[in-house]
Every structure is written in C-alpha cells, then in structure tokens.
Amino acid sequence: MNVYLDSSIVLRALLDQPRQISAWGEWDRAYSSELLGVECRRVIDCLRLENALDDQALADAVEQLARIEKTIARVRLTTTIIQSASRSMPAVVKSLDAFHLVTAMGIRDRHAPDLLFATHDVQQAAAARALGFTCIES
What we know:
This protein is of the alpha/beta class. Helix content is 51%, strand content 13%. The radius of gyration is 15 Å and the shape is globular.
C-alpha cells in the first residue's frame, strides 16, 4: 500500500491522541509534502508555549518526529506545485491543504497510481475523494 500522509495523521500518532488510523505504519511507502515538518513543528511549538508539553515531552516529540520523517518520502515545494495549488479545487480547501492535495496528485500521476490519501481533516478528505483518491480516515 502506498499512502500520502497529511500532517494531521502524523500529529495524532506523534502526540498519541485518540482515533489514530489503524493502518499506521502498515504501508509499503509513505509520502508527504515537505510542509509536513513545518506544520508538525509549529504544533509542537504551540503546545510548548501553551505549557501542554514540558521540556522532556518536547524533546521526545521532536525526536519522534525526526524518526517518523525518515520513513516518509517528502516532496519539495516546486513552482509547479505552488501554481497548481492556487487553482480551483473541486471542494473548499485551506491553503496548506491545497499544497498537500496537489503534491499527492503529482505522486499518484508519476509514481503510485494506487496512492491512498490519509487525513483526519473531514473537508480535506472530501476534496481528496473529489479528486479521485481513496481516503484513509479515523
């Protein structure tokens, strides 16, 4: 199984939150945008600033994220991806979600026609399904 992981999937596993996907780690190949690291680190930093993570939990989260990132093929943001993300989508999506969706479409078209899209975001999943993806959700 080939899967595109959005940040919500990684964050639930990383932070050991409820309703993680049952297929976590059961893929042959996982892909994501290079935005994954930015989004996850922003959430970790926000949790630190809100005192939801102490120093040890912060260090553990950063280390665990680095380990997770090593298992995911990450796609760089290119001019083509940026331009494509600005185009109309079949459903309402936020800016960063558009980058994830366009990146996943490129992976599907070039490398993995069987690519599944994994997200916990209901609206992003609707857009992914409208773009022809089978979604893995919680």
